[in-house]
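Hallway conversation turned thread

IA: we were arguing at lunch whether anyone had actually written out Acyl-CoA thioesterase end to end. Turns out nobody had. So, for the record, here is the sequence (143 residues) and right after it the structure tokens. Reply here if something looks off.
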Amino acid sequence: MFVNRRDVQIQWGDCDPANIVYYPRYFAMFDDSTSALFEVAGFSKQDLVRKYGLVGIPMVDTRSKFYIPSTYGDWITIETRIEGIKRSSFEVKHNVYKGEALAIEGFETRVLVGRDPDNPDKLKSAPFPPEMVAKFTGSELRS
């Protein structure tokens, strides 16, 4: 499995009055981490648009499990991987570490989408390109 790790320092604006990260901020960090995963894998946003005709990878489901809080100034490591790929949807897993300890598990379901060829004003799911499947999973897509 292809994995991307990125270190993030918790900023003042990430925290609530109790000085712990306000939970929606983690979802923004997860979104950035998913984008970074694609970028590091060699599939930049520009590639998604120009090469593959996609308009995005919107999230259709998300959830998290919180174990250890983080506060202003803390450094966390977000480890992101694609756990599974179907025809156009895929499962993303984010493990957030504070030091060596698992602090959060984040889960996303996303879909590759492009313009509907029959009606360009609408969006339509798009199949996962084989080279993306190979990069993220190390194997070919199975139906």
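OS: looked through it. The two ends are 19 Å apart (CA to CA).
IA: good, adding that to the notes. The beta strands are 3-9, 54-56, 59-66, 75-85, 89-98, 101-111, 113-116, 119-125.
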